[in-house]
Amino acid sequence: MRSDGAGTFLTDERLGSCRVTLCPITGDDQREFLDLVHASADLHRPWMALPTTPQEFQTYLRRFDDPAAAEGLLVRVRDTGAVAGTVNINSIIRGRFQCGSLGYAAFAPSAGQGYMSEGLGLVLRYAFEHLRLHRLEANIQPDNQASLKLVRRLGFRMEGYSPDLLFIDGAWRDHERWAITSTMTGHVPTGPHPTLPLR
To answer: Which of 52, 69, 113, 128 gets the highest tally of CB atoms within 10 A of its CB?
Structure first.
């Protein structure tokens, strides 16, 4: 189940850019998603591991059953509807933190055309205005230059370095920690999330 109003917010024309739009990932996306993962294997290794089988995809999809904890989104090319990439808002924590952790990947057929930059920009607006998060974090391997350029372009700041943070492609990988807040972007919700303490 999705949070109330999320589907409407995601399809609002004002949220779209000139070239891309966002939509929630669903079971109907399985075939296209898996085809794109296979086509993008060289692009993703060793930066990330996405599902490669129907069973893995269904397990992956269940992570988003509770949108209060995680959201799975696709970046689609507006003119064609083709999936250009995927963005997850993981590990959503409320209360005094109001933070989520981003995971994202472009897909090879449309990589390098700026779609993910636009798409991730829309995700920031969605997370800060609609989900009413205050902060988003992205953990990036130091040699992943494309991802580092992307977060720099969007205004993230580097906050630290975490050795052996995530197990990816058969090894524990070091990551740089990058973050951005709603006040850094100007995307401020109309009111605080109900779980935010008064003081």
So the answer is: 128
Are the C-beta atoms of residues 101 and 137 closer than 8 Å to each other? yes
- The pLDDT, as a whole number, for residue 13 is 56
Distance CA 99, CA 163 (A): 22
Structure token digits, residue 165: 């943070």
> Strand pairing partners for 34?
none
Tokens representing residue 45 in the block: 């290794």
For residue 188, what pLDDT is reported? Answer: 84
Q: Cβ distance 167 to 173 under 8 Å?
A: yes
Q: Which of 69, 61, 59 is nearest to 86 (CA)?
A: 61
Task: Check which CATH number belongs to the domain holding 13 and give it.
Answer: 3.40.630.30
Residues 8, 9, 13, 16, CA torsion sign = negative
Rounded CA-CA distance 108/106 in Å is 7
pTM: 0.90
Identify the pLDDT of residue 1: 35
Residue 137: closest CA among 170, 88, 173, 95: 88
138's tokens: 């992205």
Q: Is residue 199 part of a domain?
A: no
Mean residue pLDDT across the chain: 91
Quick one: which of 69, 60, 70, 68 has its CA closest to 29? 60
Question: Where in the sequence is the domain holding 129, given as residue range(s)?
Answer: 6-185
Distance CA 114, CA 187 (A): 21
Measure the CA dihedral 63/64/67/73, to 10°.
Answer: 130
